[in-house]
Amino acid sequence: MATVGCSLECDQHRGHVYVLCYGEPVQVGDSDVNVSNRMSDPISHYVGFTGGVPIKRIERHGAMSQGAVAEIRPGTLADEERTKFDGRCAFCGSGLRYWEESAHWRDRYVPRMLERLEMIRAVEPHPEINLVVPNAGFPDDD
Predict the structure, then answer these.
(1) Rounded to an integer, what distance in angstroms lies between the CA atom of residue 64 and that of residue 67?
(2) Mean pLDDT of the chain
(3) What residues form DSSP beta bridges with 95?
(4) Alpha-carbon distance 71 to 92, whole Å?
(5) In the chain, how many H helices and how many E strands?
(6) Around Cβ 81, how many Cβ atoms within 10 Å?
(7) C-beta separation of 100 from 84 below 8 A
(8) Interior angle at CA 32, CA 132 and CA 111, nearest 5
(9) pTM beyond 0.85, yes or no
């Protein structure tokens, strides 16, 4: 799989956003999709951020992740969140809302995402980042 942007070993930037494209859904270890300290529900894409060398963080998702790198680019936590909501995979063209593939994503991921968005907005305001989750049970839902 071709990597778009930075290399796996890039150390030229303060942060990187990376996209992993697994093709068929697989179980990936990570705190975003593994909030309850269990293995995640299978997902076909993963979007992450690292403040270090990308390969060191990508290896923590499991052995299959090194071959699944679709994109690595300079970025911030806010760029990671924007990519999760609005991005497309550079390899297959699919949307990157991988967290919607989880059978329990609303219970496990959305509350954490809302906390992260508030933290990011406090440091790096981006009014265009909005979490719209129909029927998620939040007060703003109709």
Answers:
(1) 6
(2) 76
(3) 88
(4) 11
(5) 4, 4
(6) 23
(7) no
(8) 45
(9) no
